[in-house]
Amino acid sequence: MGGADQARPWVRFPGETLPSVRELASELSIASNTIVKAYNELQRLGFIESRAGTVAERMRI
């Protein structure tokens, strides 16, 4: 099963929080740094937002 197929259970709706870096890395058996890079890229592209002291969440559209 590919990475995209593995990530499908993690689909979220606007306003829902995303899994923590550690949680998602463990679930997908990949390095935490990979998740950090992915979350940073999603934030850069405007798909998610994060706030200091909170977890990342999808932007409300």
Automatic annotation (TrEMBL):
The keyword Transcription regulation applies. Gene3D superfamilies: Winged helix-like DNA-binding domain superfamily/Winged helix DNA-binding domain. InterPro entries: Tscrpt_reg_HTH_GntR, WH-like_DNA-bd_sf, WH_DNA-bd_sf. It comes from the Bacteria. Keywords: DNA-binding, Transcription, Transcription regulation. Residues 14-53 form the HTH gntR-type domain. Pfam families: GntR. GO terms for molecular function: DNA binding; DNA-binding transcription factor activity. Coiled coil: none annotated. PANTHER family: HTH-TYPE TRANSCRIPTIONAL REPRESSOR YTRA. This is GntR family transcriptional regulator.
